[in-house]
Amino acid sequence: MRRVSRIAVAGVATAALAVTVSACGSSSSSESAGNGAKKNLGLALAYDVGGKGDQSFNDAATAGMEKADQEYGYKSAAVEPQDGESDADKAQRLETLAKQGYNPVVGVGFAYAPAVKEVAAKYPKTTFGIVDDNTIKASNVADLVFHEEQASYLAGVAAAKTTKSNTVGFIGGVDVPLIHKFEAGFKQGVADTKKGVKVKSQYLTETAAEGGFASPDKGENAANGQIDAGADVVYAAAGLSGQGVIKAAAAHKIWAIGVDSDQYKQDALAKYKDSILTSAMKDVAGAVYNLAKSVKDGKPQTGEVRASLATGGVSLADSNPVFQKNAALQAALKKAEEGIKSGTIQVKSS
User: Measured between alpha carbons, how far is residue 161 from residues 4, 13, 19, 82, 91 in Å?
Assistant: First the structure.
């Protein structure tokens, strides 16, 4: 189904109000968000592919937005992506939000880099954030990035300690450097934990436009193939497509490892949760909330803001009781975590 672009104002159910908010935006950029506006409407999110409801990356950003709303009385905005959109489409979306009076304005995903760079230059008093990209060097842009490879290393430890077939799988949504970090950390964690365990790797698509982050059917088919080849633990870093991986794992009664959010706790995945061993999490919610807080406090974050295992910005979920009660696994994870934090374990990012 084609995803239709829309502005969903948190806490408001009517499209009419969204139109009203748009109509209230200043016609002059010099009077818009951060450039003389009397009132900051709050945080604005421009979602990545998959949109709200992916039970992963975008939903984590939404949680950060909702926390800011609750604490500061904001009525933040969240805008869905369109299929096959261009950088110009993304730039127009960000500019509309800035003009309306939202601050900060956050592009959720590395695909927003060209758009954030362009629009931030036009609105120097508005703070912009971009998740998963650190290429923008501007005084009003915060690059919200993570050591995904560290959480993925722990996922590799968990997979190696859990596998009985000595074959595990990695499924990446799109063949890009960001997802290579997940794969590299996972493979290293497996190799450092148990010799002889094979890791089968597969990427769903070459580009995001082909649906690698937004196609549960692609994830399910890929997982079925790996499971047929002997994998009994499969880790997916594939956004919405990861739901298909988890579904396949549940059908075959093997383990899945989730990503970004604690997928064991996601309502949409509740019927599969007993097959979700753990999730390699990154605190996108915290990064989004902290950026909003910094703007509220009058000291906006800028530059690279990188979260790690040491800062608590990446971690491994422990919601599944089976995972919690596996003493040998927990001991191995504790040792690995201490090694990463101390620097005795250097996790590769490619």
Answer: 43, 47, 53, 41, 45
